[in-house]
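User: Predict structure, ligand 6-diazenyl-5-OXO-L-norleucine.
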Amino acid sequence: MIKFISYLLKILYISILFSNSVKALNIIMPDNIFTPIQAKNGMVVTSEQLASQIGIQVLKNGGNAIDAAVTVGFVMSVTFPQAGNIGGGGFMLVYSADDNKVIAIDYREQAPAKASQDMFLDATGEVDYQLSQFSYLSAGVPGTVAGMAMALEKYGTLSLAEALAPAIKLAETGFILNHSISNSIKQRSDNFSKYPTTKAIFLKPDGNFYEAGELLIQKDLANTLKTIVKQGVKGFYTGEIAKLIANDMHKHGGLITTADLANYQPKLREPMYGTYRNHEIYSMSPPSSGGTHIIQILNILENYNIKEHNTANTIHLMVEAMKLAYADRAKYLGDTDFVTVPLKGLTSKKYAAKLSKLINKLKPNNNIHFGQPSNYESEETTHYSVVDKYGNAVSNTYSLNFSYGSGIVIKGTGMLINNTMDDFSSKPGKPNAYGLIGGIANSIEPRKRMLSSMSPTIVMKNNRPFIITGSPGGSKIITTTLQVILNVIDHNMNIQEAVNSVRIHHQWQPNEIRVEKGLNLDTINLLKSMGHTVVMKHTMGAAASILVDNNLYYGASDPRRNGLALGY
Ligand code: DON
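Assistant: Predicted complex:
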């Protein structure tokens, strides 16, 4: 008996010691367990470890969440070339504690002035995906540099030079490649090999690959970043770099001119707003569809009890709601500076109540078309999350579209250029790379911004940030972000459990539920017996997330990537 009690005491002692050491020593918890890292003063969660380390250092030096987010954004353009970028674009949500307000920065790419609706159609009128995805024509005017600078100027405390310094150092003196980046270069090398400028950076002079453990130096990129320090944002949009971009475009049949670059402006926007079971949801507004449809799906699901996690009944309700939202996405969503989008209707509770009547609790509705929201008009991307000791929060998703974008490095800049023009609907009814269908609302027009699914999100509770989340994953960004929210609010999970948990996805067309490995086969069989088509494919998303509770920060990097949550 005494032996047994002393054994119990020992276990208790070890567990107390362990839990204290987590708090005191800030030990990084491995991702494959279900406990988030916790900290009091600040936190950075990204999909790339060096970036997290540099971001947390910015916070420790007294910088705020916006300083850290912008520094991380530039660092990842060097250390995470598949999605971190200066040649792409994205969206940033900022919660400013001083203003007690969430604002959105839209730094999405936009179509060049010479772009036209049919530019990706071949002689037979079909979409030429080689042109829309892997050519100089596939590039939109990049927004990242202007967007990051705007965030810093409005809400940061660092100078652009300070925010760029770590990225410049890493580009100039190199950084050690990890397995995940070296593997991703190998996977995309077919695409690189066509472009000498890209080959020169991502392959060794003898044509071999850089292996994990080897140093990747990017001198041209370092010079480009230095030009931004010397000449400011103008250096990129009207100076030397703009000329290099326009010359290379002209030489290879691309459309971006110096005028396109000079005209580019990031935009401050009102985020989309909704409520869900006593929480407030802020997420990205158009030209992203993310916030609109996350709120629409939450509004529909609010009509049901979905507390039972991953049962066939819960998944059935979730996918029926997803189908209704993605059908509306295809019809109505586009850049609101060019087309009228019935946003109030799409996110209204009354419209959601009407849509939920289309859901049969026992079988799939295979006859879903877009609805009539206007009747209710009363009213390899990467995501990272940052919070600081001042109470600010940043939720940022940015992208080159595909992993390494078009695969094209612009001569003399070291910069990969995006292939985000493919996010437009090149031909109504024809799917883009993510199987997403669009209509006239998302057709190509000069200077229009292509529709996105990127969904940086801040969920508020009691008027303070509660969950900071978002994800890569193309069309699956919306449903991934949604499920992190549902897992916390409906399923009472901690943030690491919410991020780890197996994901499902439906995007209306194709008419199938996509599930990750790990969803119970019994559940899958029940869904099939209800009439659903279920396909099991590789993992979806990477939801680098933070939860704030009782003045403590809880961080969860996504085990689906080689990321890191760091706090102090
Ligand atoms: O903006 C969008 O919706 C897409 N360009 C995002 C691409 C993406 O997430 C690829 N990553 N996994």
